[in-house]
Amino acid sequence: MIYTFGIDIGGTNIKIGLFEIYDFKLVEKVEISTPREHQMYSIFDEISKKIENMMHKHGFSYNDIHGVGFAIPCPVKDGYVETCPNLSWSKIDVVRKAKSFLPDHIKVVVSNDANIAAYGENYSLDTPFQNAIFYTLGTGVGGGIIVNGQIVEGRTGSGGEIGHMQVFEGTDICGCGKTGCLEQVCGTKAILNYATELSHKYSSNIDFSNLTVKSVFDAAQNDDIIGQLVLNRVAKYIALSTSILAVSLDPDIIIIGGGVARAGEILIKNIEKYFKHYARFGTIDIPFVLAKTGNDAGIIGAARYTLQ
Amino acid sequence: MIYTFGIDIGGTNIKIGLFEIYDFKLVEKVEISTPREHQMYSIFDEISKKIENMMHKHGFSYNDIHGVGFAIPCPVKDGYVETCPNLSWSKIDVVRKAKSFLPDHIKVVVSNDANIAAYGENYSLDTPFQNAIFYTLGTGVGGGIIVNGQIVEGRTGSGGEIGHMQVFEGTDICGCGKTGCLEQVCGTKAILNYATELSHKYSSNIDFSNLTVKSVFDAAQNDDIIGQLVLNRVAKYIALSTSILAVSLDPDIIIIGGGVARAGEILIKNIEKYFKHYARFGTIDIPFVLAKTGNDAGIIGAARYTLQ
Questions:
Q1: Domain residue extents for chain A
Q2: Chain A contact for B278, CB < 8 A?
Q3: Three-state SS across B24-73?
Q4: From 3.40.50.300, 3.30.420.40, 3.40.50.720, 3.40.50.740, which CATH number describes the A3-122+296-305 domain?
Q5: How far apart are CA A25 and CA A308, in angstroms?
Q6: Chain A contact for B150, CB < 8 A?
């Protein structure tokens, strides 16, 4: 059997997924806390030890490893990270670093975590597409774009920062320093703030003492006026932004993921409704689907990416 | 010597460019009227004859031809055209069609004319980039996108239709059937209409009996209030749209071409001014340049594309 690893390095945890290549089956997943000290070295030391443990446990050697893929929470360009505040990394060639503790025959690939998730989600479809756009809706709004089967890293590795597309005329300043960002209407904070704002105007069954995105969208499902207004605003701006990307890139599919997407089909249906309004030409036929891999998006995508 | 052909098929004329590969020098350019009858056959017949004429004239044979590239005025997907109203073509495999009158060793490539122009413009830079966005501003506003060195054709060959990005809240219906399109503020018609509209409010040195885009932008250069207001609006919306594409795709360069771009440096400078306002993160450093190949964009791009 041949194996490949998908490793998702986050600011808090590192997830290591061991996959059997033939049918892309997850053999084992382990999670460790991200070391806090000397992260330029300690992170790779810990990962190296874990890989050896897993090899030992499942009875295989380096010879049986095809590749190791990494998802990193910052821009990555051709395997190189200029700066990663979440990991206190700067100017680090991640591919070279990983290769220093791995035999030469092992393929090492690296990309930004949202880009990797986009890649993995696309390959988790029944038929992977050549052109896919992935949204991850959470505290932040991000994404990844696949064109001609490849991740769009762009000039500096910042490709796919779709949460900061300007989609409305606003005055509030976003974390990025600008105004009118998609994240400012579709991120978790925006959703909760808008629901609260509406609570001064409408009565609702939402429990505002324990407000969550889930409670707002559950309310929408039950015809609650505030729930529906919030859902409509999120869906409208996702649709507007996807229509802009669709007419520019003509993707095969648009995949919606992240915590906010746990709202499920009601979110997709509303996005599609607004998308029909905004979409140009034949892009109106582009399908929307919910992301499937959830919290494993990073390890699945990184492992898949070693098979490119 | 080895040669390659770049052929730009338009609704009115067909331009055929013969290039010597080694230093990519244009050897000869001929232009013929696009045949009006039986266009599925007659266009290729005419091109075939012209290629043979040029071979004869310059004393080389099919053996000396590397490739033939075509730029077509409609969506093209993997060499296939579903429908091309400008040429009365439908369901035509352009690559196969061209190969039917060419020896097997000759490489045939085809893409949409704006995509081809984007490819050619990028390769006409001192250093071609992996990621480039090209705008063509004319009666229509279109463009082409290069990602990872490749043309973005997308799902149906409609990639790069950036003139129909929705960039403002409008009520007037665009030719595409929607509202708020970039073309509605940056196309030739929009420019002339806006100048005329402003003439009811401001006095100006512009000769409105003979209004052209050039006269409006020349006036802007001379501090004419109407000229400047029109220029500012065009620059603002180009900048807004490029900022959206920039944060999504992180391109190396943005190239501005088409008739409207003959305004030259004053247009680029104004776009850059607004882009600094709209641009997110490090995309603020992305350079803007004017397109260089002008009316030869199609033949140059198509010939370059055979060398991919």
A1: 3-122+296-305, 127-291
A2: yes
A3: CEEEEEEEEECCCCCHHHHHHHHHHHHHHHHHHHHCCCHHHEEEEEEEEC
A4: 3.30.420.40
A5: 17
A6: yes
Nearest partner of A299 among A54, A40, A38, judged by Cα: A54
The one-digit pLDDT tens for each residue of chain B (308 residues) are 999 999 999 999 999 999 999 999 999 999 999 999 999 899 999 999 999 999 999 999 999 999 999 999 999 999 999 999 999 999 999 999 999 999 999 999 999 999 999 999 999 998 899 999 999 999 999 999 999 999 999 999 999 999 999 999 999 999 999 999 999 999 999 999 999 999 999 999 999 999 999 999 999 999 999 999 999 999 999 999 999 999 999 999 999 999 999 889 999 999 999 999 999 999 999 999 999 998 999 999 999 999 99
Specify the pTM: 0.97
Residues composing chain B? 308
CA distance B249 to A201: 40
> Which residues in chain B are closer than 8 Å to A278, comparing Cβ atoms?
166, 178
Confidence of residue A271 (pLDDT cuts 50, 70, 90): very high
CB B159 within 8 A of CB B152: yes
What's the pLDDT band for A12 if we cut at 50, 70, 90? Answer: very high
Cα distances (angstroms) measured from residue B136 to each of B130, B222, B260, B280, B294: 19, 25, 8, 23, 10
Q: Are strands A253-257 and A132-137 parallel, antiparallel or unpaired?
A: parallel
Give A282's contacts in chain B (Cβ within 8 Å). 156, 158
Please report residues of B whose CB lies closer than 8 A to that of A169: 169
Pairing of strands B132-137, B253-257: parallel
Between the alpha carbon of residue A188 and those of residues A139, A165, A213, A217, A227, the distances in Å are: 5, 17, 7, 12, 14
CA-nearest of A137, A150, A5, A141 to A71 is A5
- Determine which of B247, B274, B283, B285 to mutate to test the interface with A (most A C-beta atoms within 10 Å): B247
Cβ B47 vs Cβ B30: under 8 Å: no
Tokens describing residue B18: 């013969």
Quickly name the fold that domain B3-122 has: Nucleotidyltransferase; domain 5 (3.30.420)
Interface of A with B in 170-199 (CB under 8 A): 176-178, 181
* Domain topology for A127-291: Nucleotidyltransferase; domain 5 (3.30.420)
Domains A3-122+296-305 and A127-291 share a fold: yes
Closest residue of chain B to A253, computed from CA coordinates:
B155
Tokens of A219: 């309310």
A119-131: per-residue pLDDT in tens?
999 999 988 999 9
Q: Which pLDDT belongs to residue A159?
A: 98
Phi, psi for residue A103 in degrees, rounded to 5: -60, 155
Residue A30 CB partners (closer than 8 Å, separation 6+): A15, A16, A50, A54
CB contact A50 to B (< 8 Å): no
Contact B160 A248 (CB under 8 A): yes
Q: Check residue B106 and give its pLDDT.
A: 98
